[in-house]
Amino acid sequence: IRSTRMQDSACSTSQRSQSSLGVLGSSAESKSEFLFDFELDPCRIDEILTTMRSNPKSAAIQIRGCEAIFLLCGGDTFTNNDSQLIIPQCGGIELIIGALKSHPNDAQVQEFGFAALMVLARREQNRSLIGEQDGISLAVSALKRFLNHAQVQQQCCGALCNLTRSHTINRFAV
User: Fold this and answer.
1) CA–CA distances in Å: residue 66 to residues 7, 17, 43, 117, 171
2) Average pLDDT score, the chain
3) Which residue stretches of the chain are H helix?
4) pLDDT tens track for 75-94
């Protein structure tokens, strides 16, 4: 993944000016399909976050947005990249936390939301932000609520593991 400066120059003005709402039309289904089929392009972070922000009640969009964040931040590759810095600066952590709070009984929102928080928490500076915004208590609650859902359990445990690594305050919160 390119550096932030390179991303800015690589993203054309026309790419940035096309909002996801204008490109996708008005149906939540088409927006959800768009987010599912997006290319892994850091230039689209703002578009993904805008779509999530504009559709907080759509579980499908929140799922796909969290999935996109997870993948843009390296997914299961265990690497750090610039997206892990850019997404929090653009309000991504708040959007993920909002999705988790708005859809507490949707297993997929919980699974992909905690997967996204897990990869964001690889960066030390994001651990405090997530902890301050109730990320730890949300993970503990989801673990209790989804006892028989292996994927939610796995993502919550992964998020908690990363959130507590070298972070005393988060450790005490668990």
Assistant:
1) 21, 22, 16, 9, 24
2) 79
3) 4-10, 13-17, 20-24, 28-37, 45-54, 59-72, 83-89, 92-102, 107-120, 124-132, 135-145, 150-164, 168-173
4) 877 777 889 999 999 999 99
How far is Cα 62 from Cα 100, in angstroms, rounded to an integer? 9
Report the amino acid identity of residue 63: I
Q: How many CB atoms lie within 10 A of CB 78?
A: 8
| C-alpha closest to that of 63 among 90, 102, 91 | 102
Q: pLDDT tens digits for 89-118? A: 999 999 999 999 999 999 999 999 999 999
**Rg of the chain taking only CA atoms, in angstroms:** 16
Task: Work out the average pLDDT over 1-27.
Answer: 33
